[in-house]
Automatic annotation (TrEMBL):
This is Uncharacterized protein. It comes from the Bacteria.
């Protein structure tokens, strides 16, 4: 009788661990990100990059951008504020903008 109880308990633990693994894998594959980089430069031409940025997440830039280029495979919205306030413009893959007021944040449109 004890062996049957132990086997039943092991089966329940195995199912729980298996379900957790499936959930974790499913969540990891559902997260979307653009492929490529957002490149931006400050007024002194120092270069900064954000590689494979996530979709629909506000990303604060390290410095005010004097030039910003979308080298991803998705569109990007550019904002003046650090928390995606005051939309400046939206650009597509391969496009860039300069001298647009020193944007401080961006969001990839997924």
């Amino acid at each position: 009788m004890h062996i049957r109880h132990a086997l039943s308990r092991l089966a329940r633990i195995g199912l729980t661990v298996g379900a957790a693994a499936v959930l974790a894998t499913g969540l990891a594959t559902n997260a979307q990100a653009a492929t490529g980089s957002i490149r931006y430069f400050d007024v002194n031409q120092n270069e900064f990059r954000i590689v494979n940025p996530p979709d629909n997440v506000c990303l604060a830039l390290q410095v005010r951008a004097d030039l910003i280029v979308d080298e991803t495979d998705k569109r990007m919205t550019i904002y003046l504020g650090t928390a995606c306030q005051t939309r400046v413009t939206t650009i597509g893959p391969g496009e860039g903008r300069s001298h647009i007021g020193g944007p401080q944040s961006v969001r990839i449109i997924g």
